[in-house]
Amino acid sequence: MSSSEGEPQLPNRTSEIRKDTVFGRWVVFSPARSRRPSDFKSKNPNPTSNHPTSCPFCIGRESECAPEIFRVPPSTPDWTIRVIENLYPALRRDLNPPDTGSDQAVGACRVTGFGFHDVVIETPYHPITLSDLEPQAVGEVLLVYVERVQQLKALGTLKYVQVFKNHGAAAGASMTHSHSQIMGIPVIPPSVTTRLSCMKEIFDSTGKCSICDLQSDQNLMINSSTHFYAIAPFAASYAFEIWIVPREHSSYFHELDRAKAMDLGGLLKLMLQKLAKQLNNPPFNFVIHTAPFDLSPSCVPYSHWFLQIVPHLGTVAGFELGTGCYINPIFPEDAAKVLREVDG
Amino acid sequence: MSSSEGEPQLPNRTSEIRKDTVFGRWVVFSPARSRRPSDFKSKNPNPTSNHPTSCPFCIGRESECAPEIFRVPPSTPDWTIRVIENLYPALRRDLNPPDTGSDQAVGACRVTGFGFHDVVIETPYHPITLSDLEPQAVGEVLLVYVERVQQLKALGTLKYVQVFKNHGAAAGASMTHSHSQIMGIPVIPPSVTTRLSCMKEIFDSTGKCSICDLQSDQNLMINSSTHFYAIAPFAASYAFEIWIVPREHSSYFHELDRAKAMDLGGLLKLMLQKLAKQLNNPPFNFVIHTAPFDLSPSCVPYSHWFLQIVPHLGTVAGFELGTGCYINPIFPEDAAKVLREVDG
């Protein structure tokens, strides 16, 4: 599938508008312009060999970084993963936390920029990317996320933690050394509120968790592992967007255990490799959608964490800005088929 | 202000999180990295002289375009503005409209990709951009939007019309000839629902329209005209975002009359010139936020249209994708001051 010569055309489909069951978004599927899988290849691939001479994330240069929070393994110069403070934090741990009720305020509201903004250095070696690591090593990175989220939860001053990775400058990465970020925020973000409201509405109406229900459509399935499966979501906002979903209903990412983290590490690596191979090493983001810390017990039945991977292939422009609707040039059943068939 | 030598530093402010009164979004203001107005200049400015030899939007090449809907003035080869169908429409006028209640459906939902996707060619001449036109000519473009929205409303099959402009490839423009787009959609988009809900909540609590209330803060004011004013919004999601707001409470953009369109043309031109001058001719989008066609009379007191201009200076990355919160490196009161002081 990686050569366009003799490459099969995508099925000829008619434009469709779909609403998703997790965010309640409308997405316009408009396949008119793109007909072959290779039409989607990134025009802006991430360079693979641009090792700067002075990267503070490289092993041996730890003193050039902001303070370390912890490393794995602990207390050794031969670390494999480090969690450090962000040198330019968007939120600051040295301010006072806002009142707990501030996100319920009606009208214009301002609170201090209190919060945490940490960096996870995923490997000591500059040329290595996350998807180059062994599955177990990817699993160890996930366990580091878990440990740091648990630490932030224990503080009692934060309402949500966003774990995310920006890979490539066009996806927002300011450092080329492989890393991810963890932001602890003192208000419940709007996407989280919207997601929980949408999933509640569906649960109240059908008795089902929207996420548990995702595994029923085999046309959208890409791959699966013991504890997880990877799908192209029914109303994907972005071309070749992937969701990796725990099979077992679970509200909180930070309750992930070691066995499941290792299993997820393998599936995440496989999906990143497939995207890189099929789409010419595109810039991408992944984000972990989990529950806010103070989730009431009544919300547990419809709150289910998952990991979303978004390759950067197009531009968010005026239509998306105005409407919140996205235009996706490939149907997810076609994206799933392309990704099923490409090797990892 | 256009040279960084001797340029004043921006005020030293502490990170803050603000919630806006129109979309209900939280925005993180994190000024740590940028200290001078010139730090924000676009690294990706729009080229000014890349006239291709074969642009179908240029005068004399009308036969290479998709069908024309109307031109101004009518029935003359010496047109100044043309409205045409999009050659690659995201939505298709040849499909059947969906049921009117489909956007209220709970759960996964799919409807046909019925809708309209038109292009407004703003000038017959390739090197001219919208902000190069005389204020009256910009006003004529706005009146063309009004006329086309009125035509789409009269069809009775659409729920919302999104008028938007993408300027520059990085802002999503696939053609360099100055143009804007009008999409008629058969469902109420999620951003519109969210905006009306947020404004209703504030109206119910305070008795005020959130938008009418915006002119009270002089620190955020950039410029004003007889019928409109331009502000940097209190919780701007994007650096140097501008809203142009009608002084008089008005739900529908398409009720704009000629005198107000001419007045708005001048203020819009001025804002685009200021952004180009201060920010090195950045790619940008503007979008018109108006009310859905079937607005119930009870919603009129809190529904107020406005025009949002967003220069493309940064990247929407993992944090925004996960949380729906944006990180803005410049406080709007500082952006407003910079834009007040730069010439048009």
Automatic annotation (TrEMBL), chains A, B:
Textual note on the cofactor: Binds 1 zinc ion per subunit.
Chain residues that bind Zn(2+): C55, C58, H126, H177
Domain called Galactose-1-phosphate uridyl transferase N-terminal: residue spans: 14-188
Keywords carried by this UniProt record: Carbohydrate metabolism, Metal-binding, Nucleotidyltransferase, Transferase, Zinc
Swiss-Prot/TrEMBL cofactor(s): Zn(2+)
Gene3D superfamilies listed in its UniProt record: HIT-like
Sequence intervals crossing the membrane: none
GO biological process: galactose metabolic process
Name the record gives this protein: Galactose-1-phosphate uridylyltransferase
